[in-house]
Amino acid sequence: MTRHCHQCGEPWTLNGQPGRGETCMKCRADLRVCLNCAHYDRHVAQQCRERRAEPVLEKHVGNFCEYFEFALRTWTPKDGGNSREAAARDRLKKLFGD
User: Fold this and answer.
1) 73-to-15, 25, 55, 61, 86 alpha-carbon distances in Å
2) pTM reported for the whole predicted model
């Protein structure tokens, strides 16, 4: 398990937490973002398990959250799209004969 960029998977090898202005050396994405935080959970209210944290609207943009903790996890690349969306589009095409 490593600390890495949420967008491209580039490992974060420095000690400590990234600052708000720090970006990934590979893809230039912000690193101190909700998507990289150990408290981020898309299945809970405000998508954050830390109840004291202020709500953040843009989860992929650097922020000043004082509860940020860089998540340790295994990198899994994002798939090209949403499988539910693709299945729904296929059903619509079949319905309309496309």
Assistant:
1) 16, 19, 23, 20, 28
2) 0.74
The DSSP bridge partners found for residue 4 are 11
Tokens of 29: 């994405």
Per-residue pLDDT tens listing for the chain (98 residues): 889 999 999 999 888 889 888 999 999 999 999 999 999 999 998 999 999 999 999 999 999 999 999 999 888 777 666 678 888 889 999 999 87
Q: How far apart, in whole angstroms, are the C-alpha atoms of residue 1 and residue 22?
A: 21
Non-local CB neighbours of 29 within 8 Å, separated by 6+ positions: 5, 6, 7, 8, 23, 60
Range of the domain at 6: 1-98
Overall domain count for the chain? 1
Amino acid found at 20: R
CA–CA dist 32, 20 (Å, integer): 5
